[in-house]
Specification:
There is one protein chain. By secondary structure, this protein is mainly alpha-helical. It folds into two domains: 1-42; 60-164, no CATH class. It is built from nine helices and no strands. It has helices at 3-23, 26-59, 62-69, 74-87, 92-104, 109-122, 124-135, 137-147, 149-164.
Length: 167
Amino acid sequence: MDLSIAILAVLVAVLSLIALLQGGVHLPLSGYREGLGILLGVLPQLLLGFALAGLITVLIPSEVVGQLLGEEAGFRGVLIATLAGIATPGGPYLQFPLIAALMRSGAGIGPIAAYLTAWSLLGANRALVWELPILGSTFTIARWALSLLVPIAVGLLLPVLVRALPR
């Protein structure tokens, strides 16, 4: 069993027991119904995200992914991944299946880290739709100017750190 699954199972078991002790069998069942409702609400996004990831895996040759985003791509790969992370809209239901597909196809951890950092820190869609109109251009430009180097630094330094850590 994967460690993350084990941790989730323990958390569900502990919270189920607490709910049972606090409100009888009705309370954990209500929690499970709420969880099912959330799942049904995000299921279309999940299915589309995984379908997109699968299609990317079969349509984009591993050699191309490795060439553009592999560890050997170096700074260029980190820069491409950073720009892609900035430009790619969508939430985690799209991003994480996409990242998994890119990793399966030969993308390195440096470019993947740069992509994920840029997507979460500098998403252009979020900046244009929310940040710029609400917080103004001065704030947005200043934040971007300071934040732009972060994905690049993460993409270049993460492989070094991972190699240095014991396995």
